[in-house]
Design brief:
heterodimer, A: alpha/beta, Beta Polymerase, domain 2, globular, B: four-stranded antiparallel beta sheet, three-stranded antiparallel beta sheet
Chain lengths: 162, 409
């Protein structure tokens, strides 16, 4: 994590000039730029990146579970600008106890299913999501399988009960 | 319906809209076992007469927890899972997974393996488009095309079997190169197929391009503006059929795609017809890439020089101590990948496929996020359906070309 913002980077320099608190830290390992944003600012930052920096696509959205470390969850946003041909990763760190982050569906309509998937598999809640329900698993499923403390085998669910 | 302004083109409005009679809406369950949903997709349709007022896709019937399983297998074993997501473009998936892991490992893939990967990925793109074309035409009542397409697909599957011993679940592209040495006589097999393909594509076009029934069912159907498609996260041929020349093979070349000469077909109409034209043209371009690969295939090793990752040759394993040790370690515990995260987008037949791999420095992935094109594309389904006739829904659905295994993983 470097602290000084590179003036040469097209997006980071503009972001820092727009709001010096827009991201807390950044890195550029293996040629992939990553910024860390606080949950409170994620929607503003995303809206700015879409409107002013040309990131018209949210390529993907998911989460990473760092159990047993804390903050446990990282929500990952993969942004893409076709016109400028650049990609940007955004991460938001969330605590394990009650992971809540504002939804970016108002910014990109396509975030809808990705956020439902992250809710379904990780139990991260997206505030302001229009329809935050399970998407892949059955409605009565208990737990969130992609959490690291969820067993790969031996869960209780049986399709006989349906 | 306020969010549908961009989707009014071609929408059918009932003539008696002003009538005060209460509208009766019928809820129709399409799928999960419906022949034109191509897999197990359930769509809950709310009908007002013959017009779809609301469409709600219900997915997850094929969810097998591939991302969870990936965390329990070692790095190389995950390749076999990627075959099973999008089972029509298995080699493309193998490649999309191998690239970010190789990026983390920082291993250099020799040119022969890179070109071989391109050639096989393009063959699997042709085979995927053939399945799409055959089933899409079948949905719309043209049965002959289906048999013709599957005839050519069979030839491609034989080529895959020749390379890997498997027709569908090839797992032929591995981290560090290829699984096996390319078989003797592969040039002849690929050339025979590839030289014949353009005339076969002409045949499909002869059957469909002037077929009045097909034309009336596809032209002007399933239209959606480019801006809306991008906002919904759609990628691939649907974007190119909406007028944007965006192909990841050109924009962010990987595996030496920059050395190949091919065009990106673009159509403006953004309807089912334009998507059909784009995919037909893509098959022709893939055929061009395969012939260039045949002509200019570089020689050299087919796997990387990375003894800690790639299994040694059988001969070396029996004669050299180090090779035996590496072989034992790779087989028993796998190889560890340096801690870090990487994402490499690639162009699958359906759009952007990429694996976001996270390593904590051990022999198993910490997380593999599979950004699959079908999942992103399927979100556009309500926008394509709502306000249109039930009969057109099958055409619009087919034009999206999704694979449910890829959606649900």
């Amino acid at each position: 994590m470097q602290s000084e913002v590179p003036q040469s980077h097209p997006v980071l320099a503009a972001l820092a000039a727009w709001d010096s608190h827009s991201f807390t830290s950044w890195s550029a390992e293996l040629g992939e730029t990553l910024i860390w944003v606080t949950p409170a600012r994620i929607v503003f930052v995303c809206r700015y990146l879409r409107d002013e920096q040309g990131f018209e696509r949210l390529s993907g959205l998911s989460a990473i579970d760092r159990y047993p470390l804390e903050p446990r969850f990282e929500v990952l946003y993969l942004l893409h600008s076709i016109a400028r041909n650049i990609r940007l990763k955004i991460k938001v760190a969330l605590p394990g106890a009650d992971p809540i982050v504002p939804s970016v569906t108002p910014v990109w309509e396509g975030a809808n299913w990705y956020e439902r998937e992250a809710f379904d598999l990780f139990g991260v809640r997206f505030e302001g999501h229009p329809n935050l329900q399970r998407i892949l698993l059955p409605e009565g499923w208990e737990g969130h399988p992609l959490r690291r403390d969820f067993p790969v085998h031996g869960h209780k669910y049986s399709y006989q009960d349906e | 319906m306020s969010d549908l302004e961009t989707n009014t083109a071609g929408a059918v409005e009932p003539e008696h809209e002003a009538a005060p009679a209460p509208t009766r809406r019928m809820v129709l369950n399409m799928g999960p076992q419906h022949p034109s949903t191509h897999g197990v997709l359930r769509i809950i349709l709310e009908l007002d007469g013959e017009i779809i007022r609301r469409a709600e896709p219900d997915i997850g019937f094929l969810h097998t927890g591939i991302e969870k399983q990936a965390e329990a297998l070692n790095w190389q074993q995950v390749v076999t899972l990627t075959d099973r997501m999008d089972y029509l473009s298995n080699l493309g998936n193998n490649l999309a997974y191998a690239l970010p892991v190789e990026k983390l490992l920082q291993i250099e893939i020799p040119p022969h393996a890179q070109w071989m990967r391109v050639m096989l990925t393009e063959l699997s793109r042709i085979s995927s488009h053939l399945v799409w074309l055959g089933t899409h035409a079948l949905d719309l009542g043209a049965m002959t095309v289906f048999f013709y397409c599957f005839r050519e697909r069979e030839d491609i599957l034989r080529i895959f079997e020749m390379f890997s011993g498997q027709r569908l679940m090839t797992s032929y592209i591995r981290i560090g190169g290829l699984a096996l040495e390319p078989p003797r006589g592969w040039q002849q097999a690929v050339r025979t197929f590839n030289d014949a393909l353009p005339s076969k594509i002409d045949e499909y076009e002869d059957l469909l391009n002037t077929n009045p029934i097909f034309l009336r069912r596809v032209q002007g159907v399933g239209q959606l503006g480019l801006a809306r498609l991008l906002a919904l996260g759609v990628s691939g041929p649907m974007i190119r059929a909406a007028g944007l020349a965006w192909d990841i093979r050109k924009a962010e070349p990987y595996s030496s795609y920059e050395k190949f000469d091919f065009d990106v077909p673009v159509y403006q109409e953004s309807d089912v017809w334009a998507r059909y034209r784009v995919r037909i043209e893509e098959m022709r371009q893939s055929q061009r890439i395969v012939s260039q690969a045949l002509e200019g295939m570089p020689g050299g090793p087919w796997k990387a020089d990375a003894p800690k990752v790639v299994l040694p040759d059988r001969e070396k394993m029996k004669t050299q101590m180090e090779a035996l040790i590496y072989h034992f370690k790779i087989v028993t515990e796998g190889f560890s990948v340096p801690a870090g995260e990487a994402y490499v987008p690639t162009e699958s037949p359906r759009g952007e496929i990429g694996f976001y791999v996270v390593s904590d420095g051990t022999a198993k992935p910490l997380r593999v996020f599979m950004r699959t094109p079908s999942f992103g594309n399927l979100q556009a389904l309500p926008a394509l359906f709502e306000g249109h006739l039930v009969a057109d829904s099958v055409a619009a659905l087919g034009s999206m070309d999704f694979v449910l295994g890829d959606v649900d993983r």
